[in-house]
Amino acid sequence: MIGLGGMGSALAASLLATDHSVVCFDIRPDVLRPVVELGAQSAGDARELAGACDVVLTVLPGPTQVLEVALGSERGVLAGLPEGAALLDMSTCNPEVAAVIGQAYDAVGRRFVDCPVSRKAPDLTVLVGGPRGVLGPDADVLAAVARTLVYCGQRGAGYATKLLNQHVKYSWYLASAEALLIAEAMGLKASEVAEAIAECSGGDSGLTTAAAYFRHDTEFVRSRAPASTIEKDSALVERMATNAGIRSRTLAVVVDFFQSVAASEFRDRAYPESTKLLKRIRSMPPKSTSTP
Predict the structure, then answer these.
(1) Residue 149 domain-assigned?
(2) What's the pLDDT tens digit per position in 173-229?
(3) Which residues are bridge partners to 41 per DSSP?
(4) I want to staple 225 with a disulfide (CB 3.0 to 4.6 A). Which of 112, 140, 161, 229 is the partner?
(5) Under DSSP, is residue 292 helix (H, G, I), strand (E, B) or coil?
């Protein structure tokens, strides 16, 4: 396991709980230590880790880090991975990353599959970039930490599907937060409006996240990803949509908003906290006269 942020640490803990042998690496010693205390071994770099494993899982911040770890000529996974072994990347990246890494791995008899995830271990949904069977025996490793494995058909499709999920999820969140701001501006109690909508067809992930902010559910809000992650994911979706020849106005709104968030004091805070900034951006000066 390479990358021990919130997702990577949870994955490592779940693998250890199911009696898998786990070797971990992260450039931050402070996040490596707790996983070692649970029973994992540690490696000095990605190359050393790869040489000790049949399958390598990576959960990294984005494309730059994934490419560096996967392909680094001196300390990367490919430099140490045994013949026939696999790298399964569970990060959120654009499909082109899968093409670049996959070509390099194919050329030397190593396996690469994009396997981004949604939700958290042990209730993960893994979006597998390939047809059923592409994981071979490594499917058992993922099945130990996931609720569902979805085979997306071809290399890069796992990454693409994850980005499309992000598009839907955060567009929904943003629309929900704006709706509750309207409710608040009308003098309605936003938390009560949220409860009502939750019983209607509009209620699910986006609404739930926005509603948690208005309910002052600090624990839930702080458990969400930082806004910088959403800004990165949204930009990747926009690039993918542009490459596909599609202009999404909903996506443009999401990208614009989270770019503003990334340039603000909310950048590294849980993304629902950016609702405070949303209120500043969306609020209009009071009208001098009311109109029907």
Answers:
(1) yes
(2) 999 999 999 899 899 999 999 999 999 988 877 888 999 999 999 999 999 999 999
(3) 23
(4) 229
(5) coil
Closest to 255 (Cα-Cα) out of 279, 276, 239: 239
Task: Identify whether residues 136 and 170 lie together within a single domain.
Answer: no
In this predicted structure, the answer to whether residue 292 has a pLDDT above a threshold of 90 is no
Alpha carbons 141 and 115: distance in angstroms, whole number: 12
Q: Where are the beta strands (DSSP E) in 99-201?
A: 111-114, 117-118, 124-128, 146-151
Do 246 and 140 lie in one domain? The reply is no
Backbone angles phi, psi at 90, to 5 degrees: -105, 15
- The domain of 219 spans 160-282
162 is catalytic: yes
Catalytic residue among 120, 162, 232, 279: 162
Number of compact structural domains in the chain: 2
Q: What pTM does this model have?
A: 0.88
Tokens of 151: 């085979």
